[in-house]
Structures are given as C-alpha cells and as structure tokens.
Amino acid sequence: MEHLFICPRCHNSDPKYIGYKNGIPYCRACISFQGKLAETSYQIKGDPVLHLDYPLSKAQEEISTQVLEHVKSGKNVLIHAVTGAGKTELVYQSMEYILKKGGHVGFATPRKDVVIDLIPRIQEAFPKLSVIAVYGEHNSKLEADIILLTCRQLYRYPSYFDLLIMDEIDAFPYRGNEVLHAFFQNSVRGSYVLLSATPSEKDIKEIKDDHGDVLELFERYHHHKLPEPVLLEKKRFSMIVTVIKKLLQYQKENKPTFVFVPTIELGEKLFSILNLFVSHGSFVSSKEERRRIDIEKFKANEFHYLVTTSILERGVTVKNLQVIVTDADHPLFDASGLIQIAGRAGRKIDAPEGEVIFIGKEKTDEIQRAITEIHRYNEKAGLL
Fold first, then answer.
1. Which of 316, 268, 310, 256 is nearest to 113 (CA)?
2. Using CA atoms, how far apart are residues 30 and 100, in angstroms rounded to an integer?
3. 242 and 213 housed in the same domain
4. Looking at the structure, do residues 22 and 69 belong to the same domain, yes or no?
5. Which domain holds residue 24?
6. Is the separation of the CB atoms in 295 and 326 below 8 Å?
7. Are 320 and 351 in contact (CB under 8 A)?
8. Which residue in 47, 202, 241, 281 is a FRET match for 17, CA 20 to 30 A apart?
9. What is the pTM of this model?
10. At residue 1, does pLDDT exceed 50?
11. In the chain, what is the greatest distance between 2 CA atoms, to the nearest angstrom?
C-alpha cells in the first residue's frame, strides 16, 4: 500500500495530480511553478519611516490602529472595506512597525496591473526604502525592503514574510485556486492581512476559524456615498444606441468613461460600432499588448472612453469617471464583479460622484444583489 503523498509546496494530496519518477513522487498541480527562490537572509537596507502627505480620515485611523494592534499580537486580519475607502493606507502603519523590527514585508495581489500601479504609491509612502515589483517575467530581482508581487510569484518566498498583505482576495486567479492559497500560507512566517471590498462568507469563516479578526469600513475616505447603479432594461440595438448617446453626452461634459463588456468578443464587436459614432476611444483587454499604453493615454485625456473587459474592474482610479456596464445580465457578471465595477466611479475627493449604469435585457439575481449591497453599504456608513 502506497503512503499518502502531500505536496509540501501546494498541499495537494489528490492522487490524480501525483506522478512518480524513478519511484519518487512529484506534484503535477504546481510543477509549472519553477524558478529561483528569494534569499531569506536579506536585511533591510533603508530607513523604514512612513511618509504621508495627506491625513487619514478618522475611520481610516481607527482601522489602521486596530490592524497594528493585531499585527503586534500576531493575529491575522481581514479588512472588509468598500471600494474607494483607502484600503492600502490601512496597512501602512503595520508595515512600518514590521520594517522597523527588520522584518520582511510583502504586498501581494492577483493582477499584474495592480502591482504596477502600487509601485509609486508604496515608494512615496516609504521614500527611503527599496521597493520592487515581481510578476510574470519581471523576476530577475527577488529581494528588497518592500516586495510587491502577484500571487503567482508567492512560491518564490517560502516562510519569508513577517507581514504579508494580500489585496483583492476575491479576484481571479486567486479566488478558489487551492495552489495559490497554499503558496500564500507557505510564504507567511508571521502575520497576514487580507483586503477585500467583496469578501465571501467563506473568506470570513476561514479568517475566524484561524482565530483572526474581521474589520469593516463602509465609508469612503472622502465621506461621500458610493454611486448607486441604475438599471436600464434594453435589448441589444437599444442598448447600443443608449451607450452612443451617453458617450456623446459625457464627451460634451468632459467626463471620461469606462464601458464594461463581459467578453473580449463582445467588446471587439461593440467598439467597432461605437468607433463609427464616437471618436477618441479604444478597446482594452487582457490580450491587448497596448493595454498599459492605452490606459495612460486615457488618464492623459487622449482617449475619452475605453471599452474594457473586467481587467479594469480593480485598481484603476480616474478623476470624474463614469461607468457603463453593457450586457450586465451576462452570466460572467456576478454581484462581486458588478460591485467592483461600480466602485470605479466617484473615487476622487474633488470629484466624488459619478454615474453607474447597468444595461441588460433583464434584472438578474446578481444585478439585484449588487445594487442591494451597495445601498446597504451606504446605509451602514450613515450616508443615506
């Protein structure tokens, strides 16, 4: 009888993912994750002093202090904070505490684009420390004072982090991926902090089962309510006409716009039509090599609108942004994703409002859940 083999990297024990070479077992579930590992002997080189040019809100300060107390006591934390609440700032104090003790700090997220956007923010907060980003092929250097990385790179850091922050735990590819979850657990030798605007009941149960705590923040840092979506029930031709009219209106008002689509194919078709009637736009998706360039052009007002897949549902902040979701009743749009998408609007303190329009043939349960949850968040924040 063969002994049960449990992979030390990803904890897989399913026999169908276990292979044998010369009688020695190996794991097929995580075999594709190959590469050099970080040196655990790395020591902090710079001065770990936090520098912020802006004050935190009272609610942010309270949560930040609670997180720090938990980290000091070795307790793990899940922060459930609405989009635009300033989640990143909530962990700065704890990062500073661990760094001053000479500990290793990592900030992980499922998506490369979010890692790239985090670099200047973290560097500005800790100007005297080295900050690196590790993602995809960008992995020649693995050690620095602060490490920003995608969750797929966590396998390079076994028992490495004294504090690991995991942002957007509800996002693909981290959500539901047991291998990536195992890499996360294996890389922590101290405490961890999870961040999410839309944690699942499973996420909340797991942190509590791990003797951790859940902290909630339903107020945006600028004290304005979350824009609540309006649903327009329209068939395809009427939907396209509505989008064209709204884009022309927003262009006159100098309001940049994201038009979300559920799939690349639908996005390409929609943009080919919109481009005939509304200029200064582009289509971006995970397969578009020019995505980063187009996003920067959009931020510079060279593009007035972007048709986009869910690739831009997180991590991108644009002043005065308006949001349209086409085919909102598509099965790929769940409540969590729709809440994240709606959260792109009204994020700036000098432009705290924005329109969020869902367009679909019918109101699905997921659409209703998203609208209900956003309204509930505003109620809990005392903004209604």
1. 316
2. 35
3. no
4. no
5. 1-32
6. no
7. yes
8. 202
9. 0.91
10. no
11. 74
